[in-house]
Amino acid sequence: MTSSDDLEAGLLALGETLDVPSPPPAEVARAVRARLESLPGADGPPAPVAGAVRARLGSVEGADRPAPVRRAWRALRPGARPRRRAIVSVVAILLALFFGATPAGRAAVVEVLRFAGVELRIGDPGPLPSGVPSPLPGERRVTLEQAREQVAFAISVPSRLGEPSEVRVSDGGRVVSLFWPGVRLDEYDGVLEVAFRKELGPPWPDQVNLGTSQAWWIPAKHGLTYLPRGGGEAPARARLADPTLIWQQKGVGLRLEGVGDLQGALEIARSAL
Amino acid sequence: MLPCGEICHDIREGAPTDDDEAIARSLAGDLDAYEALVTRYSALAHRTASMLGAGDEAEDVVQEAFVKAYRHLATFRRGAPFRPWLLRIVANETHNLTRSRGRRAELVVKLTEVDPAKGEVPEDAAVATDRRSRLLEAVRTLPERERQAVVCRYFLQLSEAETAQVLDLPIGTVKSRTFRGLARLREGVARDLI
Asked: ipTM score here?
């Protein structure tokens, strides 16, 4: 008795009468603006990366796109496949770093890649940082159960490593750090904002396959700085980090530090998927 | 529908008049232009977040979505429609929220009072209201996948292509989920009215 058109018309009419409370648009716009102004680098949307290298490469096809940013964004969509062009441009950039850049002509930071909430500043990082690592902001020891209640994302525990010997939550629940002897796994909410900055020189990082997605492997010791949520106070000093695998799953960024070989790190990462 | 729609922007001196111009100026760091864009899409973004399950946290979801949209504006393909691109971010933020809270994405909306049409007797108006609330209840109880497709297509009045982009689904999946949802609604509503 209810024809398809009746039902569709009924739904459209119903939609018109549904009341969704929302604040005045001008107020929302002001609030968004205030948040943007409080962020670091609020002068404009983050500029496409790879400027310096792109200039050197000339008109490499696909290099006119901000590949790493786009890749990180696309990877948020489940099942999204990285675009071929993006891969081409990343490979081109890394090849250029290998073969094109001479030490004399190279700027201190040649390239910035952003992936899974980590910014990789690749170039000549100068001397590695030293000194004891300082805790992340608001860092405290908790049990795994407490951590699960305190953070807004699902915590992955790699089955290969078993129960962590220690769990810490930092920065108001943005970061959970799991510890095993010699190994540390940081999991952090959101892969669009930069949570960690890594400064590294050769050997260059590698992009590797992890299941159906991608990961980056940083094979050598490097400088690591945590960037507090929303800019926050001045970032902590850089610390010396061991080889690290970074990847993302379901909007959560992960960095596994302390496993010296890529295969071992990948096996652990797979057991957390 | 927007209390302050296009007209308000047009009369504000120097405010961008269309999305493309607003985006170009935002990319150049003009926060006034981005504010205008936020104003333009705020109500729709709230409606989308609420209807896809953000509930009383829709305001937070929308703010976060606009902040992220600004920070990723460089990845927006110029000339493409802004609306589904933005709503995709809103839907994604809503999804993150409902998942992190471990709760089902409920359809949180209220029926508004509709003035009876001219000449309509109060009894008829009551019947119409009753029919609407039954239909809304039937939509609420649809399986989540079908409900989201139906909500996008009919409550948000998005095209199939826009729905596919916002929900990050192939267009065929949008079609089949909408079809199944409508079939289920038809059964339920028919049963109720007999």
From this structure: 0.83
